[in-house]
Amino acid sequence: DIKTTAVRKGDEYVINGGKMWITSGSQADWMCLLANTSEGPPHQNKSLICLPMNLPGSIHIAKKIDKLGMRSSDTAQIFFEDVRVPCKNLIGEEGKGFTYQMLQFQEERLWGVATALTPMETIIQETIDYTRQRKVFGQPVLHNQTVYFRLAELATELELLRALLHRAVALYVEGNDVTKFASMAKLKAGRLTREVTDSCLQFWGGMGFTSEVLVSRFYRDLRLMSIGGGTDETMLSIICKYMDILPRK
């Protein structure tokens, strides 16, 4: 629920409010701000504004958030007090901000799925390499059926996700609305990254619980896939809406 307001006064918007979870917020030169520009319905009262971070008024970077993963990417909490931005910095039409945001989510979610494929491939391959050379009771860990069957299952799930992504992207390039497929792929990617990292970390034993191996970093970093860009629960609601099985309020 967005509380930040941008009130038009002459040739400027006067911005007040705050934002949480702003990627690169503590070092950015400008931000793309979604704010309420009128008192209308929530889906029709928001606008996107290009906001330089050195404008008149107070832009206060409250803190750099200490995160579980993605620690090389700074994320900030920011407050605005009577920040003035020229009306010409409006992106598109006033009141269309929510619509623009929803449209870009298709690409963001497809991009998110694509960026998760290679890390998962890497984790599976590194786990194969490690369990092949690590021996327990005189034989490689990989030679346990529990291990090699599980790795085969994970590799299969990964290829199924890749196929769904390819289908969704092909349809999108042709100009179709792929909100349902993008949401399905995003949901599956979020769950599969958790499954792959958790299963593979287990096969690394004690080493998996250290910060010295890639699998533990991906275990932390990829957990964001089920939260950022729309939670798993949001994806399920969108899918249900497109299947016409979501109860109406």
TrEMBL record:
The protein's required cofactor(s) are namely:
FAD
Sample GO molecular function, one term: flavin adenine dinucleotide binding
Its pathway, per UniProt, is:
Lipid metabolism; mitochondrial fatty acid beta-oxidation
Q: Which domain of life is it from?
A: Eukaryota
Q: Where is the Acyl-CoA dehydrogenase/oxidase C-terminal domain?
A: 95-241
Listed under catalytic activity are: hexanoyl-CoA + oxidized [electron-transfer flavoprotein] + H(+) = (2E)-hexenoyl-CoA + reduced [electron-transfer flavoprotein]; oxidized [electron-transfer flavoprotein] + hexadecanoyl-CoA + H(+) = (2E)-hexadecenoyl-CoA + reduced [electron-transfer flavoprotein]; decanoyl-CoA + oxidized [electron-transfer flavoprotein] + H(+) = (2E)-decenoyl-CoA + reduced [electron-transfer flavoprotein]; tetradecanoyl-CoA + oxidized [electron-transfer flavoprotein] + H(+) = (2E)-tetradecenoyl-CoA + reduced [electron-transfer flavoprotein]
Give an example GO cellular component term for this record. cytoplasm
One GO biological process term: fatty acid beta-oxidation using acyl-CoA dehydrogenase
Q: Show where the Acyl-CoA oxidase/dehydrogenase middle domain sits.
A: 2-83
Could you tell me the keywords of this UniProt record? Answer: FAD, Fatty acid metabolism, Flavoprotein, Lipid metabolism, Oxidoreductase, Transit peptide
PANTHER family from the entry?
ACYL-COA DEHYDROGENASE 6, MEDIUM-CHAIN SPECIFIC ACYL-COA DEHYDROGENASE, MITOCHONDRIAL-RELATED
Give the family from UniProt. Belongs to the acyl-CoA dehydrogenase family.
Its name, as the record gives it, is IVD dehydrogenase
Q: Which organism is it from?
A: Prunella fulvescens
Which gene is transcribed and translated to give this protein?
A: Acdh6
